[in-house]
Design goal:
Radius of gyration of chain B: 19 Å
Shape of chain B: elongated
Low-confidence stretches of chain B: none
Order of helices and strands of chain A: HHH
Largest sheet of chain A: none
Oligomer: heterotrimer
Number of strands of chain B: 0
Low-confidence stretches of chain A: none
Largest sheet of chain B: none
Chains: A mainly alpha (78), B mainly alpha (114), C mainly alpha (244)
Structural class of chain B: mainly alpha
Helix content of chain B: 55-70%
Helix content of chain A: over 70%
Number of helices of chain A: 3
Mean pLDDT of chain B: 90
């Protein structure tokens, strides 16, 4: 059972990672990055690491996408 | 089998991030791809520390159930926060590059101008 | 080098690295096995120091020197971003921050969640040695919660309730106090960052010696550093652009 959950979490992370890199527009990448962080958090919880999951959730879902969006606003998209 | 899947996803994320950096046309896209590559190292570290049927590293005084390795988790969690601040530094560099050169396309930023 | 040539070269390199990685992964110990040397050493050590959260104990007690290095990196990155985004003499003019339109639902949700998030962040920092949490996570939650004011309200509200100078002082003071705690450990215990406070009862709030103290200091430093960092990025949007 744990193996099945672990495999599903790994699959989510692999697909979300591909989605982040394959998005050419940095504005949209902020959203996909946030989703990727959420999938990573799930994987970290399944790997029995609650501290790491808390850290990744706080950082990846709020701080980094906010920084990316503020930079895009200043720099301009493509 | 499951071990190769876990380590395989770690290697996949690392190489994906590297290819994203090489193929990117916008410096912010480069920085975000770097984040993806760093996530690959987190998955590898936590995969090394994992043990079947073991619990999270929060113990009671008479702990009977084994726990997973706390050392790799300590490394990973400080790494996540530090890499967020480094991402901020890189994005600040991007803003300054766009102000000085007018573009954030890596292909147009080849020459060093004084 | 054109994009196609670069991509082919990168694909060749990535193939080589992939082969090396697969060879390495095939020789690793079995995934999920019970060969964990550091865990076998860390578990009795943290139980002897009355800390239920093994990861916090490793971060702030067994390997506290590494955490000093990591928090110095955070401080250095904040200083670097501050100096990078310093407005140049041509950018002295500021535009008035405008109040954008925020949906009433978002406003109410934000204002309701703001005290809850701040309380949660303080709880995560304070109970870092007992439950999952600690200085790093709690600091990020605190900094993000503060910016709910910006997301659900207006930038002037955030600017009024965000004392930037105090955040800069707090970040520097917390980093310095970490070193002072280490020196106190050196004087009282014989080793830098030794755990010299009384260990207390297993599972109570004031236990585990210096672990909650260092956790709170790191929490203050990370929260203040992130607030200063985000303030630089938010302020960039207020510079009046000169279109010549």
């Amino acid at each position: 059972m744990t193996t099945a959950v672990l495999l599903v979490a790994l699959a989510f992370v692999a697909v979300a990672g591909f989605a982040v890199v394959a998005t050419p527009d940095p504005r949209r990448q902020a959203i996909t990055l946030s989703l990727f962080s959420l999938c990573l958090t799930l994987l970290f919880v399944v790997l029995q690491a609650p501290d790491v999951a808390l850290s990744e959730l706080a950082v990846g879902s709020a701080v980094v996408p906010l920084l990316v969006l503020l930079t895009i606003r200043k720099v301009g998209g493509r | 089998m499951i071990g190769m899947a876990c380590y395989g996803v770690a290697g996949w994320l690392l190489l994906l991030g590297a290819i994203g950096i090489v193929r990117s046309r916008h410096l912010v896209h480069t920085v975000v791809s770097l984040s993806v590559a760093q996530a690959g190292t987190y998955v590898l570290l936590l995969g090394i520390g994992y043990q079947d049927q073991a619990g999270a590293p929060i113990v009671a005084q008479d702990q009977r159930q084994p726990v997973v390795d706390p050392m790799v988790q300590a490394m990973t969690l400080t790494d996540i926060v530090v890499s967020a601040t480094i991402t901020a530094l890189l994005l600040g560099l991007t803003i300054q590059i766009s102000k000085r050169h007018g573009t954030v396309d890596p292909d147009e930023l080849r020459a060093l101008r004084g | 080098m054109t994009l196609r040539a670069r991509t082919w070269l990168c694909a060749a390199g990535a193939l080589g690295v992939a082969v090396l990685l697969v060879t390495a992964f095939l020789r690793m110990p079995r995934f999920g096995g019970d060969l964990h040397v550091y865990r076998d050493l860390a578990l009795p050590a943290t139980l002897a120091r009355m800390t239920p959260n093994l990861v916090s104990s490793v971060n702030f007690d067994l390997r506290a020197l590494d955490t000093l290095g990591e928090e110095t990196i955070v401080a250095a990155a904040v200083v670097g971003t501050l100096s990078l985004l310093q407005p140049s003499p041509a950018e002295r003019e500021r535009i008035e921050p405008q109040r954008g339109y925020v949906m009433p639902v978002v406003k109410v949700a934000g204002y309701l969640l703001l005290p809850v998030t701040l309380l949660l962040g303080l709880d995560v920092v304070a109970h870092g040695h007992l439950t999952p949490g600690g200085g790093f996570q709690g600091g990020v939650v605190l900094a993000t919660g503060w910016h709910l004011l910006y997301i659900s309200g207006s930038y002037p509200a955030l600017a009024r309730l965000r004392p930037i100078d105090w955040c800069e002082y707090a970040e520097a003071a917390a980093t310095g106090l970490y070193v002072v705690t280490g020196l106190a450990g050196l004087i009282a215990g014989g080793a830098f960052l030794a755990n010299v406070l009384p260990k207390g009862e297993f599972g109570s709030l004031l236990s585990a010696g210096t672990v909650p103290v260092l956790s709170v200091l790191v929490g203050i430093e990370v929260a203040a550093g992130l607030v200063v960092l985000l303030a630089q990025f938010l302020g960039q949007g207020l510079i009046r652009e000169e279109h010549s």
